[in-house]
TrEMBL record:
Protein keywords: GTP-binding, Nucleotide-binding, Repeat, Ribosome biogenesis
Matches recorded under CDD domains: EngA1 (cd01894), EngA2 (cd01895)
Name of the protein in question: GTPase Der
Residue ranges of domain EngA-type G in the record: 4-168, 177-352
Family: Belongs to the TRAFAC class TrmE-Era-EngA-EngB-Septin-like GTPase superfamily. EngA (Der) GTPase family.
Entry-linked PROSITE patterns: G_ENGA
Residue positions binding GTP 2: 183-190, 230-234, 295-298
Role summary: GTPase that plays an essential role in the late steps of ribosome biogenesis.
GO terms under biological process: ribosome biogenesis
Gene Ontology MF terms: GTP binding; ribosome binding
Subunit-structure text: Associates with the 50S ribosomal subunit.
Amino acid sequence: MAKPIVAVVGRPNVGKSTFFNRIAGRRISIVEDTPGVTRDRIYAEVEWLRYQFTMIDTGGLEPASEEPIPRQMRNQAELAMEMADVIIFMVDGREGLTLQDREVADILRKNNKPVLLVLNKVDTSNQSEHFYDFYELGIGDPIEISSELSLGIGDLLDEVVKYFPDTDEEYQDSDSIRVTVIGRPNVGKSSLINRILGEERVIVSDIAGTTRDAIDTPFSHDGQKYVFIDTAGLRRKSKIHSNVEHYSVIRAIAAIERSDVCILMIDAQEGVTEQDKRVAGLSHDNGRALIILVNKWDLIEKDNKTTNKFLKDIRRELGFCQYAPVVFVSVLNGQRINKILPMIQYVSNQHTMRVQTGVLNEVIAEATLMNQPPSDKGKRLKIYYGTQVSVRPPSFVLFVNDKELMHFSYLRYIENKIRESFSFEGTPIKMICREKPGGSR
């Protein structure tokens, strides 16, 4: 399931950025007394209790202003509200209800999203003298906090997470393979989906950045159901200028989080770029199965060494995802497009594969015989046994005598032996070390 998104909105200078920085645990947004300092919304990954979510800070809403900067800030905040699962509407509890607050409330009522009305800057245990005035907004019971003094923030977050789905909830459609197409702008993501579907289902344009939203397209083939998610291309942060593109990045990350398989598209003419590494890293870090498609292969002059050379370059540049199969395609002329759906189904099966505990421990025992575990100061690592604890991605726990003795290189060695025995092609593997209760150190 994708992480929920919480947007913090309100008129300028009500303390949104101070609140955001307090929640995020570090100073991210610029905080000044001057209204309108935060012009771009900024986002952070947040954890409260057992929930993880994305919080978006926005510039102040000035609904009536037609000046260029307030208008752009309004557009940004409206985009944030459109994306959000929960909206925190922040007002100034010291100053009281204003005309701007009423105008923002009018926008929120049309949005049809859960809204929590938060009175900030209530720096004492006494209720704000303006508390009951805010009932005029018709949004619900106000929640009083002080971002500056960290008062009431825990109670607010308790209310926020009540609107989140249960974290134990299974995929909404377990029969469908959810596939997210990722990559830099203009590498052919939308064209790929249209080619697979056999029809123009997604807007295709030569202008980079045409696709701004993550678009879900369900379909079936040979009895298997799929949902293809086309995303806006991910640019380097330094290249993100447009307010719409900031949100496209968040949408793309959210799309990766709710997918089973990611297809990373690389432009054959440009090779692997730093941004390709970053995009692949998002898939890897989220534990998603991964396929690498090298597009525009028809435009490359070739000899009998070209494919192997390109493949070696990919393996060198994307060393952290050696498990990902590589397919050389041309979306324009349909070259090898027929290989993509079978590959998706294959890596999805690998992503959800389980290994019996007995068979797994035979592999681990053989691996430790071939290459003895490391030792330190006379203590040698002992691996008592291993077990697979989950899928998506396949995750293994090794019970040991002292996890401090498990060097990362030996853990990688065990992972490689598991891959040699069971393949797990196309999926990352998660390896966890735990000390066996009562085991001798």
